[in-house]
Design the sequence.
């Protein structure tokens, strides 16, 4: 696909456990269209988190290839992978992974400061206001609720205007009302920024709003609804 932002070809991931080799992903192939929203679904242990970690350059495949924005990740150096992640990728972790010694605004600023942006603080404040946390800028993670921490994580993921956003169960730790608000925020920010979404989720609201659903089971892709035909 000429307009694919992400291409995965015959991807496999193996882990060794003692003398045994565990297959976490087996022969996965798909293209993700720029600007699209894809939900990755399947039972626990089906390889969803591993899949997006490899696609984001956080892990390396055992076999196959991953090409993001024309860059082959499987052969990239660690330095190149770090540059690609900082330049093109946003990632929302299920466990938030906020730095406890930094305030909300400082957590959001970190990726932009690494990138050397001059207006990191004002951009971070703007994003926190957009996710409804303009009165929580100087609070530390322990002073924030789970839903508020997730909003900080979303703002941080968007600070560098990523070309693609990966999110691992972004509503998994939240109550139903907060989860609905987080779904709205993710898709609103996606619509405003034109960011491609790739979301691991069990949330039906997220799945319903995605224009593509990739279903994994036992490390294999068993269905792919909404894939763009190459015919």
Sequence:
């Amino acid at each position: 696909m000429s307009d694919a932002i992400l291409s995965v070809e015959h991807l496999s991931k193996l882990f060794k456990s003692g003398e045994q080799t565990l297959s976490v992903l087996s022969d996965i192939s798909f293209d993700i269209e720029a600007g699209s929203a894809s939900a990755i679904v399947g039972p626990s242990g089906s390889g969803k988190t591993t899949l997006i970690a490899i696609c984001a350059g956080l892990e390396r495949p055992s076999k196959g290839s991953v090409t993001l924005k024309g860059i082959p990740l499987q052969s990239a150096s660690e330095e190149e992978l770090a540059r690609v992640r900082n330049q093109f990728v946003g990632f929302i972790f299920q466990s938030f992974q906020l730095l406890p010694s930094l305030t909300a605004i400082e957590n959001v600023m970190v990726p932009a400061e690494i990138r050397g942006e001059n207006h990191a603080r004002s951009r971070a404040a703007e994003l926190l206001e957009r996710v409804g946390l303009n009165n929580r800028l100087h609070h530390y993670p322990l002073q924030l609720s789970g839903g508020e921490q997730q909003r900080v994580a979303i703002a941080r993921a968007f600070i560098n205007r990523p070309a693609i956003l990966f999110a691992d169960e972004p509503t998994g730790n939240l109550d139903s009302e907060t989860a609905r608000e987080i779904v709205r925020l993710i898709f609103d920010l996606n619509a405003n920024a034109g960011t491609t979404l790739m979301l691991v989720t069990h949330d039906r609201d997220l799945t319903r709003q995605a224009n593509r659903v990739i279903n994994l089971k036992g490390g294999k892709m068993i269905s792919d609804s909404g894939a763009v035909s190459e015919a």
